[in-house]
Amino acid sequence: MGLLPCSCPLPCNKTRSECQMKYPDIQSEASTSSTLLSQPSLPSIPSLSSLPQSYNVDHQCLATLKGHSSYVSSLALSETSLFTGSSNSEIRVWPREPPEYSTGNIVGAGNGGVKSLVILGDKLISAHQDHKIRVWKIVDESSRRDQKYKCVATLPTVNDRFTSLFSQKSYVEVRRHKKCTWVHHVDAVSSLAVSQDGSLLYSASWDRSFKIWRTSDFKCLESTEKAHDDAINAIVVSRDGFVYTGSADKKIKVWNKKDDMRQYSLVATLTKHLSAVNALAVSEDGKVLYSGACDRSILVWERVSNGGDEEVHMSVVGALRGHTKAILCLAVASDLVLSGSADKSLRVWKRGLMEKDGYSCLAVLEGHTKPVKCLAVSVSASDSNSGYSCMVYSGSLDLSVKVWKLRVSSV
């Protein structure tokens, strides 16, 4: 008898046993459509819902972008363009402002589904199911509507692979009785992040490791092997250099590098979630971390002191609740937190001016017909003292990207 296909709501080209090993708490959409009893319990953490309803949000869906033949798995924004990646390895680029949307131009394709996209200056960097990271650059700017892109690098680079090939010290054990050079990911690269100054690229993988790459020449500088006990699904970096990794082992780990240390070391392990951690986002000042998991909750963590002058790790202060299925993606912009879920909806949360003010769910955006897998958001300058607007882009398993405009104002 053949191997059974994966039964989770997110197509991942894995067998059922492989998928459940990485995502043991995700149930099939069919098995949970009529009841929540089979879903993981919510963490016993108080909800953060004390912010008074002193704000209004007007929202409308400006466009629905269709062109991908497989589900949309990742998004990235540049100043002028929206980049979308799909589970069948295709990357497309769209102008950010409607009504110019059509079907999007194809940037290129790797050999595996696109798990993550980030912008670095004039380059687009993509992470793939085939264990590779690819760097794309515009090579023909003659027409804004028909820009040509070229893959200018694949990580690890040829030089990295060659220099590590002949040294016995370069090999690490990746599975029982199997070794590989430390510069290679050996499973899907699930998430990418860029340092505040743009000098470093961070990659996380289902192989339980994360790696650091120098962006000037894309040399692999460091690899933290066996960073988690299971697949790493998300990685984010704060502006002050803390690295956060979220894993299917239900843990979030905090990493940092001291000036006198050559490698990142573990600062703290955050363990309040009851199931696989799927998404992370960090506030612009780096003092608040948001984590979303299969347990349907978004936990809010705030920086605390370790008894000295330096703030070193996070402590949970509460949870944002409202989604009825797994949290799949998070995004932060200004004082807004946006979440996408397997329940097919997006939620817009606003943080109060003071910590004690809590949070409020300003809006629930509905329109997708399948789980919301990825988010991107940009905030426009305030047009008055009482409000501002932002653009939100959401990618879904329904093969589409929706473009939303939000207008947030005080009552």
TrEMBL record:
Signal peptide range in chain numbering: none
Record keyword Repeat present: yes
Annotated Gene3D superfamilies: YVTN repeat-like/Quinoprotein amine dehydrogenase
SUPFAM superfamilies: WD40 repeat-like
Alphabetic keyword roster: Repeat, WD repeat
Domain of life of the source: Eukaryota
Extent of the WD repeats: 65-94, 182-223, 225-265, 270-302, 320-350, 365-411
SMART domains xref list: WD40
Pfam families with a match to the protein in the record: WD40
Name the record gives this protein: Uncharacterized protein
